[in-house]
Amino acid sequence: MRSKKIAWAAVLVAWAAISAPVWLRAKNFVKPEAKSAINYPAHDFHRDEQVAIAADPYDKPDKAKIFSINFDEHGLLPVFFVITNDGDHPVSINNLEITLVTGNHSKLTPITPEDIFRRLSNPQANTRPVPLPIPIPQKKVKGAVSKKEMDEIESAQFAAKAVEPHSTQSGFLFFDVAGISSPLEGASMEITGVVDAKGTELLFFEIPMDKYLNAPVNP
User: Are the C-beta atoms of residues 56 and 82 closer than 8 Å to each other?
Assistant: First the structure.
């Protein structure tokens, strides 16, 4: 009798796994473990302040598979953003400003989770800032963005406000690159707003993205 109960329990578990929605069966998102920023091909290191910043695009299928969402087909580019502070004092990044300047001089800033939800709900939605003196209100788009997808996007975001001594902070930035061919070729990422313990802003960081594109491919 006991063996029959065990057999029935196994059948029920297998049935539940098969009949569960795809989003429940999909693996949970796990953010990559960050290395020190100087270990990424595309980085800028300020030796005097002992602070390095790296940008690692997830533009290839083998890297992008960590997400359950295909950002590329929605015109979005995820970039793993890493800041390492090897100094003896914390640095503040509360007022960080990040701009991806493409080879054709388009200036892109990271979009918000709400912008990403809008794009996933409506592939035609424009998520770039409107270059007008008065912003035009954008209608909310109702779509089929699942709770799992929302959680994945929010947990992936770079959200640090400071970097403690001898530590690294990381997370993803998302850029709207719809309609831009080869957005990384000839591009650079410019970062300002890194402030030391005395309240002095560090000289801006500039990361040439060609360093990433031209890096040797690991076997």
Answer: yes
Residue 45: which domain range? 31-213
Question: Is residue 10 assigned to a domain?
Answer: no
All residues at 6 or more sequence positions from 81 whose CB lies less than 8 Å from its CB, including other chains: 53, 54, 55, 56, 98, 158, 170, 171, 172, 173
Neighbours of 105 (CB within 10 A): 8
In which residue ranges of the chain is pLDDT below 50?
Answer: 4-26, 132-142
Strands (E), the chain: 43-46, 51-57, 76-85, 91-92, 97-101, 107-108, 162-163, 167-176, 188-192, 205-208
Q: Look at residue 142 in the predicted model and tell me its pLDDT.
A: 46
Cα–Cα distance, 25 to 9 (Å, whole number) = 19
Number of independent structural domains in the chain: 1
The answer to the question of residue 129 being in a domain is yes
Torsion 66-71-101-179 (CA) sign: positive
Overall size of the chain counted in residues: 219
Q: Do residues 162 and 59 touch, judged by C-beta distance below 8 A?
A: no
